[in-house]
Write a structure and sequence with these properties.
Blueprint: H1 2-12, H2 15-28, H3 34-48, H4 52-65, H5 69-85, H6 89-97, H7 105-118, H8 122-135, H9 141-154, H10 202-205
């Protein structure tokens, strides 16, 4: 029950317990729907344990191996968040430049604004936040955070972590029976959902 082992380790916040299972999944079941989801779970554990480089490696792997556009987009978004956290602003911007589903336009533009603002490119950051504001649901609380960051830039200050949007650094996906399409306007990064588990080899999901 490899995926279950990773999931259990995530609940216990113990990446060491997931190491063997994630290695088997990525080595032997890389083509299944479970593999990139397991990598996202493991990346979160590594990030939370302050292993930023390890988290980046897992997000990169998930983005490169996921067959679903939504999972790829989530992995790249999380990767860019870690890159911003490590002050790798150009790398984060390059990650966010990769084509993604339209439903992610708002959150990608917001994170782009964060990277640009942190890099001191205030005018470009303001433009990125304006793009995010135009894409996000006008009634969402997420949009309110972006508006605050945009307005803060207007005052000549750099947005602080205190007004960061409520988007966690790592996705915590769990397999489900269906994989619904994301909404036309996303207010946060859509959660990762799995395809029919029956489509994955038994060794990966069990």
């Amino acid at each position: 029950m490899l995926y279950s082992a990773v999931s259990d380790a995530a609940r216990a916040k113990d990446p060491a317990k997931a190491k063997d299972a994630i290695t088997q999944i990525t080595d032997n079941y890389a083509g299944t729907a479970y593999a990139p989801r397991a990598a996202l779970l493991y990346a979160k554990m590594l990030y939370d344990s302050s292993d930023r480089d390890g988290a980046k490696a897992q997000y990169t792997w998930a983005a490169e191996h996921a067959k679903e556009d939504e999972i790829q987009a989530i992995a790249r978004f999380r990767l860019a968040q870690v890159q911003v956290d490590q002050k790798q602003y150009d790398a984060a911007l390059a990650t966010l430049d990769v084509k993604h589903p339209d439903a992610f336009d708002g959150v990608y533009a917001d994170l782009r604004g964060d990277a640009l603002a942190a890099a001191g490119r205030i005018s470009d950051a303001r433009t990125a936040y304006e793009t995010a504001l135009a894409k996000l649901d006008a009634k969402s609380s997420y949009r309110t955070y972006v508006q605050v960051k945009h307005d803060t830039l207007g005052s000549g200050a750099t947005p602080s972590a205190a007004v960061a949007p409520p988007v966690p650094v790592a996705a915590n996906p769990a397999p489900a029976a269906a994989n619904p399409a994301p909404a036309a306007k996303a207010t946060s990064v859509p959660s990762a959902t799995a395809n029919d588990p029956a489509k994955a080899p038994k060794g990966a999901g069990k």
